[in-house]
Amino acid sequence: MDLKDIALTPIYFLLIYAILNNIKNNMKDKILxxxxxxxxxxxxxxxxxxxxxxxxxxxxxxxxxxxxxxxxIFEAFLDNPYIALQIITAKVGEYPPxxxxxxxxxxxxxxxxxxxxxxxxxxGFLSFFTFNTYACISLGFxxxxxxxxWKMYRVFYDLYxxxxxxxxxxxxxxxxxxxxxxxxxxxSICMGALGWMLYGFYFTFIKREKxxxxxxxxxxxxxxxxxxxxxxxFAGLVPMILWGFLQYRAKIKNTALRAxxxxxxxxxxxxxxxxxxxxxxxxxxxxxxxxxxxxxKVSSEWLHTVGTREKGSAxxxxxxxxxxxxxxxxxxxxxxxxLFQPHPWQARNIVMIISSFETSFxxxxxxxxxxxxxxxxxxxxxxxxxxxxxxxxxxxLIAFGAAIGSSNYGSLVRYRIPMLPFYLxxxxxxxxxTKGSVNxx
Length: 441
Known about the structure:
By secondary structure, this protein is mainly α. The chain is built from 23 helices and no strands. Helix content is 77%, strand content 0%.
């Protein structure tokens, strides 16, 4: 960060704000519109705070590395815009003579890391319009994330307009989400894509409005998640299928047929889902069913080493053996850890302390709702209101995957941010369904 960031960032922020304010003024739903600008503002704040902390507190990190890899693309743009566009669309590992002077200085390109280079493609494109200014590029990522988060809110608002304010807090104002999900990182792209995926699914298959347009949004978002973080895509698709089934199951008039349809779905749907997953990931060195257990093992061991170096942020779920069943043996412990840890006494820095407050809040209100409503009442509500069941299953899958793949709290708090809005929204929805209010205490 330098003087260019200080000079240009306010200008770009005000420009984006003016455009969004015009959109907000044209919204017909005044309740919905009141959250539009605050939601973007907190994302913008998160993106700037994220950059400042990584630059001046951590002294570097992924976001700085992404920006450093963006510079050669911007230099190519100044020399020849066509070459810059070629770099953005290039296949990683190929070195045409005209691209070599630039791509040879891009670490993630030279390393053959196509997944990570996809982040550089976006940051490089944004650099053309921002004079390669870190904070302005980061604002662009915040805007991309915001569009999806807003679509996510639109879905929950459409289902539960009575609790619009608590749902806004759940989706927009969780500190971990707007901090980790707003900067120049994969997470910002994925949070945006997740919101568009939910929006496309809901308005295509549940509401059946503007079918082809919303189907396009859904498929595009799935493609983006497949490129950047496939575990989020897989964790979302499974409960979405169940949501769609339960939605149509409710329309079955024959009581016996309706009762038998759920076991039938599980008997057919689970093997079918595994088969589809195996075909989608076939040949993938990291995410195929054959290699998934080993990928979790390698990732866990590496991040545990990093966490140990960071003086106390490491944790262990026990040694993984590299098989697909290895993580399943520690699933209950992993889900608890992914949802409710770190506890306050496990926090070692300010980021962990803030995260521990969030997880403590989630644990308290989870126990409060279970105690006040009862397990069987909640079970019936989950089946009767598929969006709550979808949100719960998605949250549990992400919590499980984040805990298994992290092995240190620093990575865990970032990996699990996709589940936080859904889990908290689910708690608010359950509270409203059981008590007719969202007073959690």
